[in-house]
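Sample 3 of the quickstart, ligand alpha-D-galactopyranose:
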Amino acid sequence: MRKLIALPFLVFFTSLFAQDIKIDKGWKFKTGDSPEWSRPTLNDSDWKSIDVGKYWESQGYQGYNGYAWYRIHFIIPSTIKEQAFLKEKIRIDLGKIDDGDEVFLNGFFVGRNAGSNSDITQGPYDATRTYTIPINDRRILWDKENVIAVRVYDGGGDGGMYEGRYGISAADITDYIVINTNDNPFQFADKKVSKKIILQSTSEKYDFTGKLRIEITDPVSGASVFKQTIGTDFAINRPFEYTYKTALPELKSYDINYVFLEDRTKKEIVVKESIPYVLTPVATAAPRINAPGVFGVQPGSPFLFRIPATGEKPLSYEATGLPAGLKLDKSSGIITGSLESKGNFKVKLIVKNKIGSSSKNFTIVCGDNVRLTPALGWNSWNCWGLSVSDEKVRASAKAMLDKLADHGWTYINIDDGWEDKHNEQGQILTNQKFPDMKGLCDYVHSLGLRIGIYSSPGPWTCGHFVGSYKYEEQDAKTYADWGIDYLKYDWCSYGDIAPKQPSLDDFKKPYIVMKEAMRKNKRDILFSLCQYGMGDVWKWGAEIGASSWRTTGDIVDTWTSLSEIGFSQDKSAPYTSPGHFNDPDMLIVGKVGWGPKLHNTRLTPDEQYTHISLWTLLSAPLLIGCDMSQLDEFTLNLLTNDEVLAINQDALAKPAKKIFDKNQVQVWTKELEDGSTAIGIFNLDNKINKQNIDFASLKLSSTLKLRDVWRQKDLGSFTKGYNVSLPAHGVLLLKTASMKR
Ligand code: GLA
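Result:
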């Protein structure tokens, strides 16, 4: 289970040292617990093989919670010691481990990562494990077989060793060097890309000199397209900054290596990244109203809708056919009020500026379901983790208003970390990071945006803050009084309340209790279930009044996590309907980190296009997980493509279906309200994939007019099939011409 939050983020996490001994393959695994399992002489030949880059849940141990051990045998060559400049310590890197771990080398204890009570049942699951031991320590057997044994405990949800760098190396002065690619974004101007990188020393003792090589290569041909070597000189308070700038031959992603050759040790430190490319055309100066075209509200609930429109400012707004009870502010485009009775109301929204005007049909459905299209918003978890605060939420709301709201983004959701305790009257209090929750809600509403909050049906949340158990009615009332519009309700410690083998009714129970409590207040609160898909929640989420339900464990910013979650959503797809959506977890583009320190997402640019395209097709809630006050040009391009967002917000709310799966290419199609079909063609391979996509195998007509959705460009008419050339882990998102069904 995800409980505690990251230790400080290691900036050099992508660094590679040529001198490392890799221990990423060859691990053995066994569930259970015994002190004998640390012994080097133990015969583990009957233990199962395991991949330490993935949770044990995805490797045949579905639902396993408790103790388990990992073991690996390997030789440590004495050349490691001989080549080291410092000759002080040996470093063992073991990636991230969920929840806690204890590490043994040749039967001797090396270290532990545990919770505050030194009990490994509460480990800092998101911390990168690095253990060091003195280079002359007798625990190390030079030039002989060594055994590392890792004892792990997982309390719930995903568990085990799951990602990172696995290696043995001599800790050296080069460990004090940081190639910082994180603080400055890629910039695009005059058909050139540029970026400032910084070389830093974290040592008070050592200054560094050496050569920095910047190499850009074509990921397909391997050809070098840019190479530069620069002499550098830096110290703790004297960083070396360098901005490179170059034109690139094609509009696609390129690989870039920063290689620093340190003078004293002659060691190379390598940091790799991929150069992004922007596909979304700049929004035109002419006005345009963006999705959605349908909006659900309950009778008697406060109505709040900000018309999302792009175009040169100032814009003025009009609406014809607004039902009694609603009014529009013509300068801000915010519609407020409330509707008394159920019914469908056809409204025409109009937006004007000095260049022209544009209109859009908008249906207000006053009934039992709220919103009707997937939520478009932000959530604090994937960036700030438990370090979220009033200040950060306000900054996010302001950033959403300035950069995203015109494209339809509207929810600002506070995740775990705002709670204090219930007072004597049973009222939930906020902690000191949230001095005035009502004031914060009013502020977000004043921008025409909506605000969300988080709790658990258990006594404690996953981050060990107080939950709603036995206080459901009072909490629901407080949320409504504050003006909350969205509740994420996370199972967490409810696992201790529910029977050990919960029945379907046991899974539903806490969510029904909270839904009933919320029904007592006249407020439209989107109800977002978070229980990681237990009891096939997609089969009953809608029936108990949920707006969305998480279908999986927590996402992290890796391709393994993204692809395993995203491409397995076809099982729950049939259960999506207007106002009720599968939630494959929040977005991992931009600067993420689970707080307080952030890093650039580790997804490549093509993986990020895949992420947004797939979530869009799945009709998934799109909840931005990055720091929106640091949105770079590439991330903005991912989040502001109105044709892409229109597919996600389509009123039919049909989920995408996987229609084709061959040679590492998957095609997912989604029917749209205007009779057209959105088609996502995905390459799951880690190299370029060229294929002819046969329309017959997609169950589509033999001649199709196709539009490239990211580029917003018509491609022409094609018969029988279409040839694609997809980059590694990349996507082509297409739409057929509309044909009213
Ligand atoms: C769980 C959820 C996450 C987040 C954390 C908060 O892990 O799945 O999305 O809400 O709890 O502690």
